[in-house]
Predict the 3D structure of the following.
Amino acid sequence: QGTRTYNFNAGPSALPLTVLEKAQQELIDFRGSGMSVMELSHRSATYEEVHNQAIANLRKLMSISDEYEVLFVQGGGSTQFAMVPMNFLTPEKKAAYIMTGAWSEKAFSEAKLFGQVYQAASSKDSNYRYIPSLDEVKFEASDAYVHLTSNNTIFGTQWREFPNTGDVPLIADMSSDILSKPIAVNKFALIYAGAQKNLGPSGVTVVIIRKDMLELANKNIPTMLQYGIHAKNNSLYNTPPTFGIYLLGEVLNWVEETGGLDALTKRNEEKAKLIYDAIDQSNGFYYGHADVNSRSLMNLTFRVKDEELEKKFLAEAKKEGFVGLNGHRSVGGCRASAYNAVPYEACKALSQFMVSFQQANS
Ligand code: PMP
């Protein structure tokens, strides 16, 4: 553990220690170039290798076929909320949004600025405790696309199984669970995710887009907001966030070196189980926000049975070196974000702390 804290931040969040150490080692003189990655020209062969390797690694880890382009853009998930409708929402069509939390709402509001949108399903009436069942999701064959948020960072819910939308493009915001488990990429026309939870530092946004979507996309929008421009230029149309892409590539190497996606999935399941067990075995001392069958393996949201105790829990946890356990300001309570790089030991320590806090305060 050393000087490293138990980091349960919701994003930006923990990065693998070995990746940080490698970056530190390579910082001053990157692979014999006499400069850091940050100082390399983005047109240099040395940088290009970093860039292409990161793309190739993501393709391999997520089993992304040649039918798709992998892009690195900027502006975070929030810019994708606008880029998606700007590119794909035509005046004669509607876009269907499945509402599972605050980020779905943001995506929906942004799309409203560009065209006709409607809600294909929503769990707002329950304060977003669950993911709607597949037969609750209503959309039209003529829709421009169906949009969903695969993991709800604030409410702590996650899709288990995705709707089949046939010929209607399915678009997913996977900001908070990308690369946390295997995903059938070919169900989706477009996937986007800010890197700052599972993939690397903030500043890089990954877009995985099916090539036929590039043909459909609107060309009368600002150049930087056209997916096609980034695809045509291998995400080097302008200066990309080079250091972030380098770190993202190193995080992907770390995934590979620690057993690949299957091992990672298993670790994520084990980590979440430690904390959900502490909740479920507490006889109501702790209780989850999410319905059990919609629970997220990434953001574990829970409450302590009364408000005073909850304050005490958060204050004592902080003293014990647990960082980032306060729930999002819009919902309160507690949230442990156990993204890919959060070690098993951190989750073990948190579950033990939860048990001993309960014993001391029951
Ligand atoms: N979507 C989800 C699911 C998120 O969790 C977040 C940020 N926490 C965003 C979108 C917004 O991303 P960004 O801050 O990169 O714009």
